[in-house]
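From the methods appendix. Each design record in this collection lists the tokenized structure first, followed by the designed amino acid sequence. Records were kept in a plain field format so they could be parsed without special tools. The example shown here is representative of the layout used throughout.

RECORD:
FOLD TOKENS (195 positions):
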């Protein structure tokens, strides 16, 4: 795997974010620490982004499809209470899989599972960078949990309020396909409200 080394990455996959918010909602006394930058080093796109000629490029389309597949599989694993996280391994880079495993393990050990499906409601290409035989595609994405409920093993609802979160998504595209390399939630999700 190519290590691009951009400093704006953090350690918070969708499962980690869902689990941490649910745990912080009061369903457990266990502490879960999620590394989310206090002031993410991203610029939130304008409410009316200018058309991007590269937005329909093949790497961007591959990256968007990879993100949709990743979110769908993440929902399936979260619905199973974090069991068998290896099902997502082919959709993410090796280094990101470590974060996925820990997020799903926290969900599993807390006895939580997800009902309903989350959705990506909007995407915008940020950049495509080349490094050897691979490309890194970065995009903004709006991740909606409006149709998601998090419940305990006994059926108690511990869901945080429904939200649409702005994410910076990094996808590695090479000859083997497209794989999620990092997700970074942003503090400001005003851009997503239009979606």
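DESIGN:
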């Amino acid at each position: 795997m190519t290590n691009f080394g951009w400093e704006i990455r953090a350690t918070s996959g969708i499962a980690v974010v869902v689990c941490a918010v649910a745990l912080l909602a009061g369903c457990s006394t266990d502490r879960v620490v999620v590394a989310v930058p206090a002031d993410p080093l991203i610029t939130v796109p304008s409410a009316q982004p200018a058309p991007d000629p590269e937005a329909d490029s093949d790497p961007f389309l591959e990256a968007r499809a990879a993100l949709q597949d990743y979110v769908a599989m993440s929902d399936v694993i979260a619905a199973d209470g974090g069991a068998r996280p290896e099902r997502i391994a082919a959709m993410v880079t090796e280094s990101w899989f470590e974060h996925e495993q820990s997020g799903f393990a926290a969900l599993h050990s807390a006895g939580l599972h997800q009902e309903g499906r989350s959705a990506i409601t909007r995407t915008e290409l940020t950049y495509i960078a080349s490094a050897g035989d691979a490309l890194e595609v970065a995009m903004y994405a709006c991740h909606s949990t409006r149709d998601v409920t998090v419940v305990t093993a006994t059926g108690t609802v511990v869901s945080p309020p429904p939200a649409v979160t702005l994410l910076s998504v990094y996808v590695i595209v090479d000859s083997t396909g497209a794989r999620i390399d990092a997700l970074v939630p942003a503090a400001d999700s005003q851009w997503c409200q239009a979606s």
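APPENDIX NOTE: DSSP finds three helices and six strands in the chain.
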